[in-house]
């Protein structure tokens, strides 16, 4: 670690545990989106959240971010209920979240400044540059506006920004959903590598629709059922962050877990279609 990093990590908040207890949530009275969720997540877990569209994955992330309040139950961090956004949690969304009028470097600098208000512009600049280099950019990207960068590059800047600010908890909502397969694979490897090498390990909640992405990145996969969504499956993934992409996909344990996950998701989809009468219509 270099001296800039030391200066920018001295007062990092610590999070040991996130406890979701009996959580239910409705945007509109009497229409529950999430129901009876219980989950305990320890520091350093990489939790991938899977589930059908509309089951409440983004809503769950918004609750973790403190942007919504539970209708019933509670989410607490180290026994303190979440009461709003906080420096202990960072978010990365699908739409990159960069300010379009600021360069990539300025975006990272602004995030650093909010987190470390006492630092000089030169210090912020040098750490921002370092963090952009850390995700594989050269110095030129620092001066580029988001619109001058591809979607994948913008998301890479957003990831550099999230890790630069260094929150112990990262909330990522389908961050690679809009990217092509190759860029997506590259960024999956980047996030996996950053998570694996960063000590203490960040606690990550990562929403995805993709079973392979969940198994590739996660140390744990949690599946939410149809809305009102509760947890219908929760499993640990062996060798998270360790083995290479191909070794992970080929291991027997991985293949079995993949089949089990797909079975649970398919059963949930079938129940939903049957409940909505879609099987009956399709059969005519
Ligand atoms: N601000 C809001 N006000 C009212 N209802 C909302 C709001 N945001 C989301 N919803 C509803 O809550 C439900 C869950 O939405 P959410 O965005 O959490 O689903 P999701 O699992 O993230 O879906 P997707 O995979 O398509 O992103 C949906 O029925 C949606 O219409
Ligand atoms: Mg969503």
UniProtKB/TrEMBL annotation:
GO MF annotations, alphabetized: ATP binding; ATP hydrolysis activity
Family matches, as SMART domains: AAA
Annotated signal peptide: none
InterPro entries tied to this protein: AAA+_ATPase (IPR003593), ABC_transporter-like_ATP-bd (IPR003439), ABC_transporter-like_CS (IPR017871), ABC_transporter_ATP-bind (IPR050166), P-loop_NTPase (IPR027417)
SUPFAM superfamilies in alphabetical order: P-loop containing nucleoside triphosphate hydrolases
Domain annotation ABC transporter: ranges: 18-251
Keywords: ATP-binding, Nucleotide-binding, Transport
Gene3D superfamilies xrefs: P-loop containing nucleotide triphosphate hydrolases (3.40.50.300)
Origin: domain of life: Bacteria
Pfam families recorded: ABC_tran
Key word Glycoprotein present: no
PANTHER family on file: ALIPHATIC SULFONATES IMPORT ATP-BINDING PROTEIN SSUB, TAURINE IMPORT ATP-BINDING PROTEIN-RELATED
Protein's name in the database: ABC transporter ATP-binding protein
